[in-house]
Amino acid sequence: MAEQDSAREVDLDPVVRIVSRYVQHHQMAPDQLLTLIVEVHRALAGLGRATPVQQPPKPVVPVRRSVQQDYVVCLECGYRGRTLRRHLRVAHGLDVAGYRTRWDLPTTHPLIAPSYSARRSTFAKQIGLGRKPATVVAPLPGSGRRRRQPSPER
Question: What is the pLDDT of residues 7-39, one digit of tens each?
Fold first, then answer.
């Protein structure tokens, strides 16, 4: 019944003009013409109406409880894991920046469990990553350019 009321509100003359101009410049199958007319009519009927206001998303768990010592929780679906980067990309199609923007999280909000991060840091330090070399290595003899000897005058 609401569609019948909107049909009375829309003047068909603009619909006819828009569809005819479109068909003049584009090739269409006859069965597509009806779909085009209906879509143009709906678009014109919807003009001037307020679009529904979307409510901001509500997280599955409170943001304060999303970071635990041994795991982090995805605010989208409640997934618990040591890291969220891959889960966000695969399950939700989000990157880290998009996730933080969507949930209004600061850049300091961790997406890796603190205990997992500390364990990886300790391991990296044990194998020597992140350290600068203790001594400066001298260049090997003969590896540099040789000076050109002046040629004797002829």
Answer: 457 788 888 899 999 999 988 888 888 899 899
Within-domain flag for 151: no
How many residues are listed for the chain in this entry?
Answer: 154
For residue 65 the two structure tokens come to 């409880």
Would you say the C-alpha torsion 21, 24, 28, 33 has a positive or negative sign? positive
pTM of the predicted model over 0.85: no
Specify if 133 maps to a domain. no
Residue 117 lies in a domain: yes
User: Could you tell me the residue range of the domain that residue 28 belongs to?
Assistant: 2-46
Task: Enumerate residues 6+ apart whose C-beta is below 8 A from 66.
Answer: 59, 72, 73, 74, 75
Torsion, Cα of 126, 130, 136, 139 (10° steps): 110
Q: Are 76 and 92 in contact (CB under 8 A)?
A: yes
CATH number of the domain at 74, please. Answer: 1.10.10.1550
